[in-house]
Amino acid sequence: MGDATTLAGSPSALARDRTMPSGPAGRLVREVFRIRRAWYRLRYRRLRLGRDVQIRGRLRLRRGVTVVIGDRCGLNKLVRFAGPGEVRIGPDCLLNGSWIGSWTTITVGAGSLLSDCELVDNTFHNLDPARRHAPASPGTRAPITIGDNVWVGAGALVMKGVSIGRDSVVGAATVVRSDVPDRVVVIGNPQQIVKRFDD
């Protein structure tokens, strides 16, 4: 596992507007975020935080998950990570009450927005009725990849083995069970494309 500097990126149009107060108030706010980062690094040994990560809410890691969060990310509300896998969040992302369960790997590209959604790369049970109560087979798990500048709406569920293309939007309460191409909007269960940004 690399350190968070590999997810640094450079300031760009993807970066969210992060206006900070200037003067003594700005220094105080930056110091509060620095202390919160230090506290979470001490609490969770498998957590790597990039530069200027702003933890405005709470952060919870469970079951030995390894999490790498890139530079200038913001975390609001309670953001939860679970599972024995690895999660890599690119720079300039915003996570707002997200739940991410990783038993393999989950990668989120730069500048992505994750609302109160769920990403889980494991179905936990075998589909075959005769094997349903048997220990889960490797086929119940597959990595998830989310491209750069993707917006996943509130209540959406992104399931195992899915790849979401750059600049795409996943609407609220959408269940994503198959790959999503670049630059589209998907909604529904199962997801369907309702808009293409290149049109």
Would you mind describing this structure in some detail?
This protein is mainly beta and 199 residues long. 11% of the residues lie in helices and 31% in strands. Strands 2-5-8-11-14-17-19-20 form an eight-stranded mixed β-sheet. Strands 1-4-7-10-13-16 form a six-stranded parallel β-sheet. A hairpin with a 4-residue loop joins strand 19 (184-187) and strand 20 (192-196). It starts with 22 loop residues before the first helix and ends with a strand. The model is unreliable at 1-17 (pLDDT under 50).
The gross shape turns out to be: globular
Question: What is the terminal-to-terminal distance?
Answer: 40 Å
Order of helices and strands: HEEEEEEEEEEEEEEEEEEEE
Strand-residue fraction? 25-35%
Helices and strands: which structural class? mainly beta
User: What is the assembly state of the chains in this entry?
Assistant: single chain
Kindly state the number of beta strands.
20
Tally of helical segments: 1
Q: Average pLDDT across residues?
A: 91
What top-tier CATH class fits best? Mainly Beta
Q: What CATH architecture would you give?
A: 3 Solenoid
Task: Output the strand order for the largest sheet.
Answer: 2-5-8-11-14-17-19-20
Total discrete domains: 1
What's the story with the biggest beta sheet? 8 strands, mixed
CATH superfamily: Hexapeptide repeat proteins
